[in-house]
Design brief:
Elements (H helix, E strand, L loop, with lengths): L1 E6 L20 E5 L5 E4 L5 H10 L6 E5 L5 H4 L14 E6 L8 H6 L17 E6 L5 E4 L2 E8 L5 E8 L2 E5 L4 H16 L5
Parallel strand pairs: 3-4, 4-5, 5-6
Antiparallel strand pairs: 1-2, 2-3, 7-8, 8-9, 9-10
Length: about 200
Amino acid sequence: MKITFFGVRGSIPSPGPLTMIYGGNTPSVLIETDGQSFFIIDAGSGIRRIGQYLIRKNYPIKEINILFTHTHWDHIMGLPFFKPIYDKNTKIIIWGPSSNGTKSLKEIITGQMVKEYFPVNSEELEATFEANELKDRENFRLNGCEIHTCALNHPVKTLGYRISFKGKIISTCWIMKCILKRIVLLLLKIMKKFLIF
């Protein structure tokens, strides 16, 4: 299994000299399994480079699976720039939580591509889209991997993924600012009992 981080930033892409170590793209991770099997986690601005990479490496792009941790803008913003969605021979299968009770996962993901926000409407895309909405503690198989979901603490429904492949295990869990703030506040509360001001 090969894991490549094409984006790890939160909130907004920030390329430049200050982000050279970890990169400036928002979350998008490519997981390559045996041969030419792969899937993607999140479609932040880094997914544009994943599309370029897949085409350059002659990967079969007839079926592309994208697992979304959640549907905040920084995790979906790159999808309109992912070249395979403009290929009529490609099927995009999206997996993830629906963020609210009124819209489906597919509506949320493709909803960013309406004329008011983007020059290409989602109905004009060449690729076909299929959606699988996931819940906490679901198990499924994908490209030879066993995947388990786990709900995470975030302002919208968010899933972490535990991925097992041939005895190797990786987990995805974006550390979010709201969690860090709560941890710091809790630590300060605990420390206050032991500090003398």
